[in-house]
Amino acid sequence: MNKKKKVALLCNFPVWLINSNIPCRKGHYAVWLLPLYEAFASWTDWEIHWITLSRESKHPVRFEKNNQHFHVLPCGSRMVALYTLYLRDRAVVRNELRKVQPDIIHTWGTEGCYGLCGKDYCRKAYWLHSVQGLLKAYMQRGSMPRFQRHHSIYEPRVLKSAPYITTESPWAAERVKEINPAACPILWDYAVEERFTQIARKLSESPTFLYCGNDTPIKNLQTLITAFASPQLSHVRLLMAGPTPENYPNLPGNITPLGRVNREDVVRLLSETWGLVHLSKADTGPTAVKEARVMGVPVILTTECGAKKYIENGKSGFVVQPHDVPSVIQAVLTITQSQETSLHMGNYDRENCCTALSANTMSDKLHQIYTSILHKTTTY
């Protein structure tokens, strides 16, 4: 029998969702990793190893589940790691990789040390790097928190070194090539959780729009608020999932910041909303747009969002310039003409979106990518 090939995936996998003994990490996590974990259960020709660092864990934890191996390794302070080039964390990961001896290392994101870990180990295994955010591009289009500003120094080290790079959108691929003109990014999108395809829309009685995301300046919430504060949209509610009320006092009565919401509430809010709006100045996705499209929700987003590829302008939503308030207002008025308008626009091309963003599509494409890398072919 042929020996199984090994792949080590280096990323912030939400291990607490599958192992209650692992402390939960607060804040955002990459929701698309869970559908990939579930899809990996059907892989019979690869041995899957997840390697993830945890500030909450005091000791290494290794376990098997769903025909996959998990390596949860403790790490220290983010700020100390940032200013020491992640030397300690990289050494911990490097030692674990020596034990696993993978044929391929698959790193995720340049917002932590995983990309640098790939660079450390690339002489011993094939290296594939998957883009999540792109800090340089974000900084060019808006202000970023101090940690991300400092961390952006490390991003070119990864993107200029990785022999294989995937991006979730053509927009992201273009930004990668701005840093590394020689790169040939592979388009590989992340799946949406199946629960978003299984619930029927039940619109709220009055016109309502939803924003899902954080409130960093790159998300351009001031433009969003300006549009919905217009007298023309006074009859349309805007619910902002993520932004907290204390950060946005004195808003018009039709705008409500909800604070952090759980995944179940995101599903419910999307099923009730007449449309999703996301006016980011720069975004490789966002995931919320993909979730909306597989549920059959029309979307208004900007030309600087990678997920615009799932919107046909005027049919399943609208693509506008980031600061074009009049166009945002007109798009909202169009979608909220009636419930029938919202439902009709949301259903446009929904089936293709569901196929493109399914776990099977993501898994099959990744299997093809791994096989192609291993055999040094280019048929992705």
Q: In percent, how much strand structure appears in the residues?
A: 15-25%
The stretches of 5 or more residues where confidence is low (pLDDT under 50) are none
The run of helices and strands is EHEEEHHEHEHHHEHEEHEEHEHEEHHHH
Oligomer: single chain
Which overall shape is indicated by the principal axes computed on the Cα atoms? globular
Distance separating the two termini: 27 Å
Number of DSSP helices? 15
The radius of gyration computed from the alpha-carbon positions, rounded to a whole number of angstroms, is 21 Å
Given the helix and strand composition, which structural class is it?
Answer: alpha/beta
Largest sheet: 8 strands, mixed
Total beta-strand segments: 14
Rounded mean pLDDT score: 95
Protein architecture, described:
This protein is an alpha/beta fold and 380 residues long. It contains 15 helices and 14 strands. It has helices spanning 33-40, 78-83, 87-100, 114-121, 135-141, 146-151, 155-159, 170-179, 221-228, 263-272, 287-295, 325-335, 339-347, 350-356, 359-374, and strands at residues 5-10, 46-54, 61-65, 68-74, 104-108, 126-130, 164-167, 186-187, 208-212, 237-241, 255-259, 275-278, 299-302, 317-320. The strands form two sheets. The chain has an eight-stranded mixed β-sheet, sandwiched between helices. A six-stranded parallel β-sheet has the order 11-10-9-12-13-14, sandwiched between helices. Helix 1 (33-40) packs across helix 15 (359-374), helix 3 (87-100) packs across helix 4 and helix 11 (287-295) packs across helix 14. The longest helix is centred in the C-terminal third of the chain and has 16 residues, at 359-374. The mean pLDDT is 95.
